[in-house]
Write a structure and sequence with these properties.
Butyryl-CoA Dehydrogenase, subunit A, domain 3, Nuclear Transport Factor 2, Chain: A, seven-stranded mixed sheet, 13 helices, 7 strands
Length: about 300
Amino acid sequence: MDDDALARRFEENRPHLRAVAYRMLGARGEADDVVQEAWLRFRGADTAAVDNLGGWLTTVVARLCLDLLRSRSARREEVTGADAVDLAAPGDEPPDPERALLLADAIGPALLVLLETLPPAERVAFVLHDLFDLSFEEIAPIVGRSKVAARQLASRARRRVRGAGTAPDAGADRASHRAVVDAFLAASRDGDFARLLAVLAPDVVLRADEDAVRTAAAHRWGGPPDLEHEVRGAQTVADALNGRVRGVRPAVIDGEAGAAWATGGQTHAAWLFTVREDRIVAIELVMAPARLGALEVEIVG
């Protein structure tokens, strides 16, 4: 294949590769350098037998980023200043609607700051899985771990990010969070609207993934309004959830108080809660198999 053909194939993947590199490194200059190095390796490699060129190039970029992060960690360097502004890399391809929903709250300066606190392997596993939807089978060889270990890396990173993101409440008693979540479950299960409102913050937000929205529509859940991707406000969230958690059991999810619907040892839905000052400020309903598989779920009782 001539150089022009090689260049065209690489340019088709460049926006995605820049997005991967930038979200891992947080610096445009370093991201561009990594993508350029990936081009040099691509030009010198025999990729005729590669079925998934995008996946091959993503693996190359991820390994280069991991090496750079480890080098940076060894030098105790941090990315600061003008480069650490925005995770939406220039020229990044727009995600599909479902991915846009999941990325809406994840991509921003706050996450970049939190990612800087993660060890290199955790950061790579988290970014590749949670932001770019790579499987743990693909991530494992990049970070030099088994599939199970790669899953654990992403899970630990997710707990760190979630914990840091709720820093004002980080020292709160876990038992009090459990009590608030249990009170929510009981009120919703019993259809007690007043008790349900009592445990929800006025500006509470409920987010549901595409699988949860489709499941709700398919089963035509009666009574409350149709489940939407995002619902805001205590009154509206209470309307949407009143009577809808029958069969949902208390659970510990990634070390935090949550709830799950599980049968036969398989988790079908996970409810993730953010609790502050004894009120629920955010609820996330997860049913997408890939995301469920990345969560550590332990049913309580």
